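Checklist before submission:
- one chain only
- standard amino acids only
- sequence pasted in full

Submission:
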Amino acid sequence: MDFNQFGDNLEDSANFLIEKLMQLHPWDDEWKYNIAVKLVPIYKEVIDEFKEYFVFNELEFTEENFDNIIKFSSILTKDQLKLLFMGDLSDIPLIYDGKYLSDDERIDLLIEYKNRLKKVDSNIYLFFNHVENYLD
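Returned file contents:
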């Protein structure tokens, strides 16, 4: 599959993403299709935003740029997210609008404020860090 066709077909894109993740995230666990299927729409959205940026600036969006978006992103479990954003989560009040907030509700508020953090599933999050490296 050509990287420019990513997102056109969910099944092909998920398999393509698994191959890319195995190359670019070799330290992570075995990649499963059911997780990749949930990641495709989020990666597609971010990739499309960068493609628009490149077109607007009359630059070519290459496979290296595509790979950098995947390489410099982090797929996190809820526990990893809580550790990584411990300081940010401590700034979110336990009680908001007269209601006690659960961990999930506090994480949802965090996601609203961190535009590079996306919720994939109830226990899987995607964080796009090192955005400056996407443009290299």
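Reviewer check: The chain has six helices and five strands.
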